[in-house]
Amino acid sequence: MQCHKCAGDMETKSHGENINLERCRVCYGLLVENHVLDRMRGKWMVETFLDIGAVSIGKKFDRVDDIQCPHCKVDMDKIVDPAQTHIWLESCPNCYRVFLDAGEFSDLKYETFGDKIKDLLKGKRKQVTATE
Predict the structure, then answer these.
(1) I want to staple 58 with a disulfide (CB 3.0 to 4.6 A). Which of 6, 31, 83, 101 is the partner?
(2) Does a structural domain hold residue 19?
(3) What is the pLDDT of residues 91-132, one digit of tens each?
(4) DSSP character for 104?
């Protein structure tokens, strides 16, 4: 499977018994099923094993947002995290996988005061669904 952000190869990564996802070998983006993402939020230190890309790489590829799901090959919806609106994600309307750029999962997992500042600085994202 190929990453639709940077064209790198995706590799399967696992953590424990019930966390499996795809990670790009080039941009370190994560393609995660929604229910797995929920599990990851509750696991201690999982981000140090899975979200290993530099934040600077993630910021670079965050600008690339018109992508197709590497799994389903359909246009992904552009969404934001409701609690931290500076985190811009892509979500597949078919398989409900979410694409997180490098560093986004770590940011998503821990909400800090600095995130409120980031929300203001980054501004609003126009949310677009594949059906529009």
Answers:
(1) 101
(2) yes
(3) 999 999 999 999 999 988 887 656 556 655 666 656 655 555
(4) H
